[in-house]
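Below is how a single chain appears once it has passed through the pipeline. First comes the sequence as given, then the structure the pipeline wrote out for it. We keep one example in the README because the format questions we get most often are answered faster by looking than by reading.
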Amino acid sequence: MALNLTEVDSVQILIKHKASCHCGAVELELSLPDGLVDIRCCDCSLCRRKGAIVASVPLSELKILKGEKNLRLYQFNTKTAKHYFCSICGIYTHHQRRSNPDQYGFNVACLEGINPLKIDNVPTYDGVYHPADHDA
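Resulting structure:
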């Protein structure tokens, strides 16, 4: 069951919410009219290592405001998902999803004022046995 929130620890999720990497070289703006949608962790080999809590937006709802030249792309396995991180501080900001290429997953910890560790009962998606690897 999907976890969706309009606030985290009494902090409202804004309709237009800014996000950034740690050093501030990369800044994003996300359109979040429904708050955080499909909050989750993943247990694939990459996500286990980065430990991020993510949510999703349609591709058109994430805009890079600053630092696109500082973003680096990482791909592995099928090279379908596109994982982006800041080349200066190394923070993962977002990725184009493998399971839904019409969406970005984004690092909730990058949202201004939001502490994802205050989100209870975050579901873990099965990335080890990824749904795209199996017939429906």
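The domain at 14-125 is CATH 2.170.150.70 (Metal Binding Protein, Guanine Nucleotide Exchange Factor; Chain A).

See the next section for the split statistics.
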